Amino acid sequence: MTREENVRFCDLVKSLRPLTGKGLSAGEQVAEVVSMLTKVPENRIGTAVDPAQASQETLRKMSSSDGSFTKKLANAIYECMDLGQFISQIDGAEPMTKQRIVDNLTEYGIKVNLNELGERCAKIALTVISRKAGQKMSPESVAARIAYARGIANNKDALLMQCAGLCTECGSSLITDKHGDGIPVYEILPIDSDVSSYGFDDFVVMCPTCAAKYKHHPRKSDIDRVRSEKKAVSKQRDFEGLLTPLNLEKELVQLLDDIRELGFEDTSHQQIQMRNPVPIRDKVSEDGELCREITDSVSSYYPFIAARMKMLEETHRLSFNELLSQMHAKYLKYEGQGLSQAEIFDQLSDWIADRTHSRSRTASILVSYFVQICEVFRAPAQ
Question: Which helix (H) or strand (E) holds 157?
Fold first, then answer.
């Protein structure tokens, strides 16, 4: 047996405590690790094959022994594993947190370099869960799965920037308003799964419908066509100046990482009400140029920002509700001063830029995101 095969799932959960948080109960820590490892399709949420449906008693027992880790639950996790997401969350942890995880793994006989922590934890998880699920995986297939996950972790942000919120295949929006939340719905797929390593040019972003048609044994003609479509999108984005992986993308990542520096005020007296998104043109009616700027920012960066915020909240580096409350409070303050929509937008952008030491242009993209989800500007009463 390899060292990874000797490690139990409960050992991995304990090793990850510096990341999941010591304030959680034993069962909650198991649930947190399962959440980090999975991305449950919408049609499985709340069903018997949703890993989140495991009872608290089962999760509590799993924190100390793998005896309660059933084959059924292992298969539910295995079927919706997102190891790229898992690696990204570990990559995003503070250096001190990662070092403590390394130290914890050492206690179980796993010696890990800090720069390979994400992959090694993913390998442990995949090895344990596939074995529990009765899924036979050769060392080569495990290595291929981890290489694919690392490729996703390294390139997800840039891929979401490149697609600009649209499916590469059919051009439809990757943002759904089904539940009134403006949720990004997409899949990142390998263009050709028969490669040994995955870089930016080896992935494509599609809507769930196109992804379902493409991902099961695409023909060579399909692979060639999708590569051509990706190249065309790449050229278009470069021409429009929307894809700047070495500049604006990094600035957005840094801004979102620094968003805690806004200097939160006490807004506990406010009630957060998630508002159903309405078209931007219905909310930004005073200034056509501002409406176009916000629309362009939302169409280009919404999925990227939403995915990044989700990752930050899952790694306990951001409270989304607290940020919502702060943005809405600032908006109401400026609106109460009688400022125009353009003035409010600029004030909010400057406020974020000043507190996070970022450019106003970068901050304005985040403000546009909050316009989209209706925390900034409101549609006129009907």
Answer: helix 139-163
Domain shared by 89 and 182, yes or no: no
Task: Report yes or no on whether pTM surpasses 0.70.
Answer: no
Q: How many structural domains are present in the chain?
A: 3
Residue 1 scores a pLDDT above 50:
no
Helix (H, G, I), strand (E, B) or coil at 360: helix
Q: Higher-confidence residue: 282 or 137?
A: 137
What does the pLDDT read at residue 245?
43
- 269-293 pLDDT, tens digit per residue, is 444 344 445 667 777 776 678 888 8
Q: Which of 308, 280, 278, 274 is nearest to 294 (CA)?
A: 280
86 three-class SS: helix
The domain of 318 spans 248-372
Cα–Cα distance for residue pair 27/32, rounded to 1 Å: 9
Residue ending a domain, choose from 215, 240, 265:
240
- Helix extents (H) in the chain: 3-6, 9-15, 17-20, 26-37, 56-62, 71-79, 83-91, 95-106, 117-133, 139-163, 208-214, 220-240, 248-257, 280-283, 288-314, 320-336, 341-356, 360-372
Residue 357: other Cβ atoms inside 10 A: 10
pLDDT band at 184 (very low <50, low <70, confident <90, very high): low
Chain-centre distance of CA 23, in angstroms? 23
Q: Which two tokens stand for residue 278?
A: 């309405």
Give the amino acid at 182. Answer: G
Which residue's structure tokens are 């919404």?
302
